[in-house]
Amino acid sequence: MIKKINDFLSGLTMTIVSGVFLLFDLIPHIANEFGNGVELKFMLFDPAWVTVIISGIPMLYLAVHRIIYNPGISKISSALLISIAMVAAILIGDLFAAGEVAFIMAIGALLEDATTDRAKKGLKKLISLTPVQGRRINDGSEEIIPAEDICIGDILRILPGETIPVDGTILSGETSVDQSVMTGESLPVDKSAGESVYSGTINMFGAIDITATKVGKDSSLQKLISMVEEAQSKQAPMQRIADRAASWLVPAALLIAILAYVFTYNIVTAVTVLVVFCPCALVLATPTAIMAAIGQATKQGVIIKSGEALEKMGKVNTIAFDKTGTLTYGRLEVSDIISFSAETNEKNLFYVAACAEIKSEHPLGKAIVASAKEKNISLKEPDSFRMDAGKGVCAEVSGRIIICGSEKYLEEHGVIPDIDMRNIFERLCSEGKAVVIVAEDGICIGVIALSDVLRPQAKEMVMRLADMHTDTVLLTGDSRKTADYFAQIAGITDVRAELLPEQKVHNLEEMRSCGRKVCMIGDGVNDAPALKIADVGVAMGSMGSDIAVEAADIALMTDDISKIPYLKRLSNATVATIKFSITLSMCINFAAIVLSLMQLLNPTTGALVHNAGSCFVVLIAAMLYDRKFE
Question: Is residue 54 within 8 Å of 9, Cβ to Cβ?
Fold first, then answer.
């Protein structure tokens, strides 16, 4: 009940009401202090009582709660000092001073809460990917069983379109598996007997039988979930600067106030010292600067979830990138059409291949057909069509037998490419491209290569980060050749490829253990643990999965990776602004303490000076909002 009342009073609506009543009380105080000795009476009831009750009760509650429940020195907080000053001001009858310090702290608490609220729905979405059942083969018959009942060694059948329930090894069958949930790869991976498959991945085409090798908490997807949970629990909330300083602020304020009373025998002077000693401007310095910076970032299409992320981003000296959907667009495009036949030009080669792939369900075939349609090429339905999962297609187009697929698939149909052709295949593969070899009536007539597309800003972004003395690393689940090719174009020299989610986390932990401050940038479900374990996680918000966005500290709404250098500059400016505001507030407080000891300030004028310091801090922070960061 007490907590509910406290939460109600500390809410935005009641804080606004508190401020209105404090303003009502301010007018006669200004007139009394500066009205040439003319004393004004506002009314029988002092409006500052409303401010004291609304903003003071939550402050007292916080101070008492920390004394009771916080361990050790953390029992002493800025809330305790402000509560003491507030009560002292009330005892000598200066309600305005009491209300002012309580109200300023209430504003500070609201601003900080607004910057540190974080959504935690991503973990639930990740858990929703967990397979719930599997098809177990027992004595030749199939039975559907809950995923938790699957044991190591069980034989499972996975049909096209089904999610693989556990980690396992393929016993029979050939297929293509969408592993994007685990590795982030843009292309399904062709699988055959003896190869491994992972829990949570999707069987795209052929039916396969697997033997379970890792089940329950040991499976890849469950490890992924566990890593997100563990990383999330390690992140501590941002701690108020004033609270970290409270261990010396409170004793110092009380000591100076007592000494002031001992030497002046004036209780008003002692209370004035307590009022001006309150760290309200100090408390406002961080959240106001962060709010302004977050507003600045939002205008640029960048969502920053916490002030802590801003501060850490300024200290980052290494940025790790995922490839697919981050450095690249994550979509396949036809990059090369190479004809090996004098009778077949590139246009005709592309036409027959697209006709043969019209009914294909494989992403490579679909990309070829989509490219043909984009070029307004009129395609003809094949007279016959057969697709061999994970290998290729065989179709009859205008009386000609067209085979499209891998080199192995063509060899199975008696088509043997010569050494020059194989050199071309090798070169295309070394460039990170997927190749579809085309044969007509038993003769290899050409090859079509498809590739992901590097974002045009990537190379310049890497160069700008290098100018800011920030290292770049590529962490990807893609093949080594693909990773090396794209890294070379982007200008990244540190490349770590063929990584599963836990291996990405291991690499980040290794970098951090060497003293690096690491930012991870990714977009997929598989990047979520890495985004959480890094010092700062940045998600590609527009294309990125909801889970990656929820796991990250920062999200790029427009997928514009050129915003990364901007983020560092903004963070550096924010930290510098906070440090300047803290220094300014401490100088104002010090000057006010000296003036109080000289009896040139009383609690009311001290509160006004104290309030002026808080206003300066807010104005300085507001300048961040419109600053240009070129």
Answer: yes
Stretch 236-251: mean pLDDT, rounded?
Answer: 60
CA–CA–CA angle 451, 487, 422 (5° rounding): 50
Q: Which of 322, 452, 478, 559 is catalytic?
A: 322
Radius of gyration of the chain (CA): 33
With cut-offs at 50, 70 and 90, classify the pLDDT of residue 517. Answer: very high
Q: How confident is the model at residue 119 (pLDDT cuts 50, 70, 90)?
A: very low
Q: How many other β-carbons are positioned within 10 Å of the β-carbon of residue 375?
A: 11
CB neighbours of residue 38 within 10 Å: 8
Q: Is the pTM of this model over 0.85?
A: no
Helix axes 95-116, 48-69, angle to 10 degrees: 60
pLDDT at residue 594 in the model = 86
Which architecture, in CATH terms, is 132-165+167-214?
Distorted Sandwich (2.70)
CATH topology of domain 333-451: Calcium-transporting ATPase, cytoplasmic domain N (3.40.1110)
Beta pairing, strands 175-178 & 202-203: antiparallel
Q: What is the pLDDT of residues 317-337, one digit of tens each?
A: 999 998 888 888 878 889 899
The domain spans of the chain are: 132-165+167-214, 333-451
Is residue 322 among the annotated active site residues?
A: yes
